[in-house]
Amino acid sequence: MKHLKFLTLIFLSTVFLFSCSGNTNNETSSSSDKKTTQPSTATSSAGDASWSCVIDGQPVSGGLTDNGLAYDYQRNVAFIDDVDKGKELLFYLLDTKTADSPGVHTLRFSVPAKTGVSSFGPDEDAWGIQISIDVNKNHTAIYNSDSFTINVTSLSASRVSGTFSGKFKFHGNIDDTDKNEIEVTDGKFDIPVSNR
After folding, report:
1. Which helix (DSSP H) or strand (DSSP E) does residue 100 occupy?
2. By CB atoms within 10 Å of each CB, which of 14, 115, 132, 151 scores lowest?
């Protein structure tokens, strides 16, 4: 009888070991399947944010979002507001690397809330992009759009994505570290839309 109980215990232990081993392999293969099905482009899943561009030859990117309002706006999250000219798509793209840091580059977009291509000059009734660059802890260089184009390729109640590029002129008192003009190329964004 003791021998039978011992064999039963070994049999059950072996079955348990193989069943656990099989679950681990299934989970591993599921994880690897998920990795291979993820897109390799700049687009991101719902709730995530991603953006990138080249500012005067320097690649810049970000994607960290806020859970709540910070700096009077949410980082890398868009809002649709009613303004005098109709519906406005307002968002700030920041290259923040940690939650307690504002980042070095801030791109503020105020554009019509619609899909398609929009191009603007320097003075377009408050439509535009403004770029702030923290040159050092005591100085921020601010550039207003001189000419820019944005193509909103997708806009829904939960996400917005598109491309942008343009030329920007310095705003304010220039110092030795500032450039009079900068150019932004290869801009891409895919960010969530939120209700305030």
Report:
1. none
2. 14
